[in-house]
Amino acid sequence: MATKKEVLAIAGREVTITNPDKVFFPTAGVTKIDLVRYYLAVADGALRGVAGRPMALKRFVNGADGEFFFQKRAPDNRPEWLETVELRFPSGRTADEIVIRDAAQLAWIVNLGCIDLNPHPVRADDVDRPDELRIDLDPVPGVPWSQIREVALVAKQVLAEQGLVGWPKTSGSRGIHVYARIERRWGFAEVRRAAIAVARQVERVAPTIATSKWWKEERHGVFLDYNQNAKDRTVASAYSVRPTPDARVSAPLRWDEVPMCELGDFTLKTVPTRYAEIGDPGAGIDDSVGSLDGLLALYERQGEGDAPWPPHYDKQEGEPPRVQPSRARTPRKPRAPVEGEAWDPMNRPEPGDRPSARGVMPVITVARAQAKADALAGLERWKARYPTAATHLEPADVLVDAMRGKNTTWTRVRVNLVHVPEADRPAAETPDPDFDPRTAK
Fold this sequence. Notes:
Layout: E1 5-10, E2 13-18, E3 23-25, E4 30-31, H1 32-41, H2 43-50, E5 54-59, E6 69-71, E7 83-88, E8 94-99, H3 103-111, E9 118-119, E10 132-139, H4 145-161, E11 167-170, E12 176-181, H5 188-205, E13 210-211, E14 222-224, H6 271-278, H7 293-302, E15 363-369, H8 372-385, H9 387-392, E16 398-404, E17 409-416
Parallel strand pairs: 13-14
Antiparallel strand pairs: 1-2, 3-4, 5-6, 5-8, 5-9, 7-8, 10-12, 10-14, 11-12, 15-17, 16-17
Helix pairs in contact: 1-3, 4-5, 5-7
């Protein structure tokens, strides 16, 4: 039986949409052709975030409820009117990645199952110097949406103090992104340092609701993920549809909308009408290019040096020990208080303190699985085995880590037992399930 197709005339080209009636969002009742038509309705805004940028293809070939995979290399059977550019990754490998510039090319990649768009923060004509600083606000479990909005407003203030204009958008998931256009004068390492400076300054301004701590077991409130600015990292761009049941959108906002906006207001079904009525709130981003000089000077004044990198990056000069606090066997060197900052006695070990053999934090791994749903099912089985311990867990004590191996993505679930009385803490045991990414194909 022949596969159903629909041919669209877009930007002077013909784009074939295969399986147009395939359901991509079962709960919302959204098909593949609905997804394509959404992107065409907001094409100018979507292209503002991705045009001229190399893009990793995040493909959901079975829709939002299915597993996805990242395809860095451009498909061999692509049309001749699609552009590519070679990228070199921290691993030393290279790949020719897709670069799109118009609505026809946008529709073509959506037809591949790309629900959201994941461009690099560089342009194809200079892949070593980013033109975008990305502030990613990532809340720990249990943090209310109002707190994320509050941290976004602090980030706006910090950027403005250093001469940069922040452009907010919902992440489409649980957080907020704040982007700033920057001059193409610095490499990835310098841009990442600027993001570290923002994260630390926001934490100092709002220490009870924001954190710059990389390790999940140390976090509270909203984490400012500075490592999204490391080379080879991508973030869902403006107007990206996210793989949520209601097909939420990463929607650009005006700053006066931030204090009252709600995540559920922005979906594939509502954003085209909003776009037609008010236009693109992020339309001026390319006209607000700024300098990183102020943030890099702030980084030096902060005097804290580098922060941990993601695990698959080579060890960097000056990077602190890349070890989870729960596995550390010696107390970390206390950080001196910054001028104007209240002294925190918890930052300094008391005389005679000794690290326990089990480490500083009682964190155990309870599940490892290729599918997130399987890992979370393993967590529920662990809770059923240890109901007393489970009753003491707070939302932030459950650490769900999205892991990326060489050839696959997988999920790890850990539990921080810090709020569980010592007598009720279960011992570490073999995770259930116990997926091994090293043997996955």
